[in-house]
Amino acid sequence: MSQYDELIGLLNKKGFHAAFFEDAASAKEEVLKLLSRAQSVGIGGSMTLNETGIFDAVTGSGKEIYSQVLERQKENPDVKTVWQNAMTADAYLTSTNALTQQGDLINIDGNGNRVAAMFFGPEQVIVVCGVN
To answer: What averages of pLDDT result for each successive group of 10 residues across the chain (132 residues)?
Structure first.
């Protein structure tokens, strides 16, 4: 039993399908499993996804990826189109800025694309939250 069981229970009561993983490798494995049916994935900017290796694993999976991080590496990036495509992808992958002990997600989003996709985007939204 982890110290986060109460929080996981709270999140599940709020309609999330929350789970706790002891390490980044286990979380990454579960995210890849959850995304197995998705042909396209939108990815919101996230240090957590980078630090856990989830970003690299998903972008290397052969799926159609809509990521502003990848788009900004191009010579003539079209970030707005990437944000729009991410909203209609099969799945959306992101993190949250903070998760309170009451089970509330706190997000600050410069352009609104990430929170828009979280709340009114793909049917499958996966939010990865680290412990720090």
So the answer is: 87 95 96 97 93 96 96 95 96 95 91 91 94 80
Supply the pTM of this predicted model. 0.93
Q: How many CB atoms lie within 10 A of CB 73?
A: 9
Question: How far apart, in whole angstroms, are the C-alpha atoms of residue 99 and residue 101?
Answer: 7
Q: Which two tokens stand for residue 97?
A: 């800025």
How long is the chain?
132
Strands (DSSP E) along the chain, which ranges? Answer: 40-43, 64-67, 91-95, 98-99, 105-106, 124-128
Q: What span, in angstroms and rounded, lies between the C-alpha atoms of 41 and 85?
A: 9
